[in-house]
Amino acid sequence: MHTLTATSDLSVYLRETDRYPLLPKEEEFNIAVRFRETGDREAAHRLVTSNLRFVVKIAYEYRNYGFKIMDIIQEGNIGLMMAVKKFNPHKGYRLITYAVWWIRAYIQEYIMKNWSIVKIGTTQAQKKLFYKLRKNQEIVGSDTDYKAIAENLDVKEIEVEEMDLRLSGRDYSLDASIGEEGETTYLERLTYDGQNHEDAFAESEEKEFVKKKVHEVIAQMPERDRFIVEKRLMADNSMTLQEVGDHLGVSRERARQLEVRIKKNLRSSLCRKQLTWNC
After folding, report:
1. I need a labelling partner for 218 at 20 to 30 A (CA). Which of 72, 88, 174, 201 fits?
2. Does the pLDDT value for residue 270 go beyond 60?
3. Which of 30, 76, 83 is nearest to 52 (CA)?
4. Hey, what CATH class is 1-115 in?
């Protein structure tokens, strides 16, 4: 199949597709059978190229969604190739009759994936709304008669309202220019109220230093005290006092007393190192 270059335009592509004649029904059937039974790549090539003009026709139905027509055509071509791969000529219908579904599916999937960085269509109702909302607004004669549109499309009124809101705006590149002069970008207009990089880095370094010193203090503790610190005071899922007592062979109350003493000693050690304000 002909491969497009980045500099190819639509007129060149259309002339290219005209080079491949349509296949008569009987010839298409024989070629399709050959491909299905033998996997003949030449047969697949002829089935694809003879139907490229139909992909262009279908792609034009989606030309008002703001995407380059050649990108839409290329997605439709992928759908056509998938259709050729799965086509069963013994069903009795022409290839393009079967391929239309695949071509539309690939084009629609491409448009929905690239319409917004926020995923729009996740349900069948949303996908139906995405492609039929504008047309139904024209039929109803109102952009905001969500109830009538919902009844026409057999979806919920709130879904119509939400999709209309989402389709009313598009994503903008932060590098896009603002205003007629084009001297300012959206990125330059953004404000940031958070911590600057220098302060954030200094804070991170300080936390790492404190963490290191705390572990040094813990490492010098007796094994029993270290166990209580690690399993009671520092663990995400800390042990209960009863569990600590059972492990150490002491009562729950004794485990509590040990914990109180350890906390006091740990705070004193950190104060001496000036690593805490609670002194």
Report:
1. 201
2. yes
3. 76
4. mainly alpha
